[in-house]
Amino acid sequence: MKGILENFYAKIGITSELPCVILFGMAFMFVFAGFDTQAYVTETALQSISKIYPDRMSTHAGYYGMCITYFFFTLMTFFTPLVVSYLTAKWTMFLASVFYTIFMLTFMLVNSLIFYMASALMGIAAALIWTGHGVYMKEITASGNESRNSGLHWSINFGSLIFGGILLLIIFREAGEVETLSVEIIRYIFGGLSVFTILSNILFALLPNYSKRCVEKRVTYSTTIGKSIRLFCDAKTYLLAVSFLFMGLSLSFYITIYPSCLFFSKSIIGSCFISYMSNRVLNFGYLPTMLIALPLYFTAFIAIYLAFPFDANLKPTTQPTLTLWLVIGMLICMGDSCWNTLRTAVLTKMYGRENSPQSIATCASFFYSAVLNLHIQILIQALVLLAGSICFAIAWMIHLREIKIVASTKENISIANKNALKY
Questions:
Q1: What residues does each domain of the chain span?
Q2: Which residues contact 313 (CB under 8 A, 6 or more apart)?
Q3: Closest listed residue to residue 392, CA positions, set 260, 248, 242
Q4: What is the C-alpha R_g of the chain?
Q5: Could you tell me if residue 303 is left (phi over 0), alpha (psi between -120 and 50 degrees) or otherwise beta?
Q6: Which of these, 234, 227, 210, lies nearest to 132 by C-alpha position?
Q7: Residue 419, H or E segment
Q8: If residue 219 lies in a helix (H) or strand (E), which one and from where to where?
Q9: Per CATH, which fold does 13-215 belong to?
Q10: What is the pLDDT of residues 234-283, one digit of tens each?
Q11: Is the peptide bond before 320 cis (omega within 30 degrees of 0)?
Q12: I need a surface site. Which of 17, 129, 256, 340 has the fewest CB within 10 A?
């Protein structure tokens, strides 16, 4: 079977870097066509179940479920390197995609206990798939192609929201405008989304396994912890962690408080632009990308602060106009595409993968989303964005200085060796 797959990969050219990145992006596109899209309707679906069956579901179960998800995500990140070392990156992502499918199917028989257990499983799956993602991207990426591959991967991945948005558009057009979803419609939605995650199961299984090319040996858990401790001794880790805090806050904001799934086409445009420019401008996928994201986010934050009522996230509102709502959503999505592309490229270049600060912030944000009003949340995000941008710039300059020092040291050693040979 292994030989058949290798011959198949060779015939269609998938063993080369670029086709592999495309298939990798498609696998993520389908898994998140299911997961990201459900995040836009889960709160509404759970509130509907709460109204129909008050004894089965809490009114704010959606917020608390996502809080549980990112709590387990945070815990699991300490164990996922060991899992990846034994299963390999490919099969770790495959296992995680199966967990995503299980999560979708639990909505066929949803109640509080099942939903919270499934939310915990989702946290484990998220830690597995993103650690596997970082390792696999590192395995298939040649030196110098980090920004290009990252931008291409994210542009394909963001296509997931278009597929999910089309599915929801079809379902809601048939259902009409209703404030409460029926159990039958909820099952149609999550049954349809589970089809996407099942397709991702197939694509992850078909990915070439590049782990055999890596020289790293399987390590014990104590060795993994030792590497993590050494990582925490690096000043750049703490600087980048502040940037990930903002990404965590932003994630919870745009998938539960400000949903705009049909406008993720702008994320595709942003990621394609970064991928294109990275091949033409040195280091474009790093500091320049961050400088593009800053005005996009700040413009969106100011517009939200001025246009939305302060309690818009806590109760229904008819403000602002649909056009303004969509324009703000476009800005947020383009900024998010810049940060995601930036994160993958930087971590692929500097480290393996570290998502704990992001998942901690997301967990906290989902918890306080049911308490703090919209304007306070916008202020928090703006402050963390500013701090994260400054910290990232400092971390990147430290990294460039380290590269110059290493290059200079190698050059001096080379010159010294040549002089020694003369004598």
A1: 13-215, 219-406
A2: 257, 369, 373, 374, 377
A3: 242
A4: 22
A5: alpha
A6: 210
A7: helix 374-422
A8: none
A9: Growth Hormone; Chain: A; (1.20.1250)
A10: 677 777 777 777 766 666 565 554 443 333 434 444 444 444 444 444 44
A11: yes
A12: 17
Integer Cα distance of 179 and 67 in angstroms: 24
Both tokens assigned to 380: 């928090």
DSSP 8-state secondary structure symbol assigned to residue 142? P
The neighbour count for residue 162, using CB atoms within 10 Å, is 19
- Reduced to 3 states, what is the DSSP secondary structure of residue 258? coil
Kindly report the pTM of this predicted structure: 0.66
Q: Tens digits of per-residue pLDDT, 111-168?
A: 788 889 999 999 899 889 988 887 888 788 777 676 677 777 777 776 776 776 677 6
Measured CA distances, 377 to 251, 322, 326, 370, 384 (Å): 13, 21, 20, 11, 11
Give me 7's structure tokens: 């011959």
Name the nearest CA neighbour of 285 among 246, 341, 348.
341
Tell me if residue 330 falls in helix, strand or coil: helix
CA dist 121 and 96 (Å) reads 9
Whole-number Å distance between alpha carbons of 167 and 188: 10
Separation between Cα atoms, residue 349 and residue 346, nearest integer Å: 5
295 half-sphere exposure, CB direction, 13 A CA radius: 4
Quick check: 288 pLDDT over 90?
A: no
What whole-number distance in Å separates Cα of residue 177 and Cα of residue 9?
47
Q: Which residues of 288-298 are buried (b: 16+ CB within 10 A; e: fewer)?
A: bbbebbeebbe
Q: What are phi and psi of 390, to 5 degrees?
A: -65, -45
With CA atoms as reference, report the closest residue to 201 among 129, 114, 137: 129
DSSP 63-112: HHHHHHHHHHHHHHTTTHHHHHHHHHHHHHHHHHHHHHHHHHHGGGG--H
